[in-house]
Amino acid sequence: MASVSSSSLLNKAVRQQYMGLCQGGKCQVTYIWVDGTGEGLRNKTRTLDSEPTCIEEIPEWNFDGSSTYQAEGSNSDMYLIPVRMFRDPFTLDPNKLVLCEVLKYNRLPAETNHRHSCNQVMQQVKEHCLWFGMEQEYTLLGVDGHPFSWPSKGFPAPQGPYYCGVGANHAYGRDVVECHYKACLYAGIQICGTNAEVMPSQWEFQVGPCKGIEMGDHLWVARFLLHRVCEDFGVVATLDPKPITGNWNGAGCHTNVSTQQMREEEGLKYIELAIEKLGKKHKRHIEVYDPRGGTDNMRRLTGLHETSSINDFSAGVANRGASIRIPRQVGKDKRGYFEDRRPAANCDPYTVTMAIAQTCLLDPTTADMKNL
Q1: What CATH code is carried by the domain that includes residue 60?
Q2: Inside any domain, residue 165
Q3: Do 222 and 273 have their domain in common?
Q4: Cα–Cα distance between 337 and 173 in angstroms, integer?
Q5: pTM above 0.90?
Q6: Averaged in consecutive runs of 10 residues, what is the pLDDT profile of the chain (372 residues)?
């Protein structure tokens, strides 16, 4: 049995006594941002005199960037720019969670603020009514880094009975999954489903469909909620693309893509055209589909365990071993969407969706991939 944190063992009944106290009309607003690693999330909370009704009513704030890998100590103040507001499922109404962009001292985007450039691209392609849906896989660990509920020595039974499984011997950590699902719904995240994955202690939730920049916003906050729920249970959710070596599945963030033309009659030809364009930019996409230029995905995209080879581009109907999968129903209906199976679980959804929009929808002579 994996170890849990000491904080999770504190008396939650005592905590609830305080959480039920009146706030006197005040509102707690928790600011959330991506730190300098491009993977970690940070947050801090302030009091507003009343409940904000829109994002414009939430003021800018600042933080110490030297403590988040984003600035030097001699010039450490960074700006937090609120961009999207959600309900807070932990402290409840009227309190809010607010996703923020990070700006440097000169008010230019921080190096890991990929939302800024992604939003510019999404504005350029807005006439295409671009929809995304992302399937976030993750693995539950104890605070000692050992997979949750795995034997302390050795391994569980081989893969096979765990995908969408039920029962204490097949599903490890369902409480975390169901609480996260409820928290997302309460907050207003566009979560659309969840399931146990192929490796024991591995799960997935899906977010979407989301239009343009909303995809990255909703997935980042859904990740924040996941980590926060895991904190309450005393376990850890890792987005490592290959948390366990050997004959175990890795973790991806499969990205489903659809434009207005793809959704209309005979839209399959536009899906095939987009896939052709993606094939020509395979190497460049691999570079931005994990935060380390493709080195994380090298451990995952081996051609085994329902993945394609990182070195080759492929596509096929209902083929989970391909780079791009066209769902069987889409092939039958000849319209709908396609699934890019290459993004790693720890990808930045802004860089992924931006790259897809640029490659598929912007003229290759004017598309600027330098911002990825």
Answers
A1: 3.10.20.70
A2: yes
A3: yes
A4: 32
A5: yes
A6: 86 93 97 98 98 98 97 93 98 98 97 98 98 98 96 93 97 98 98 98 98 98 98 98 96 98 97 97 98 97 94 94 96 97 98 98 57 42
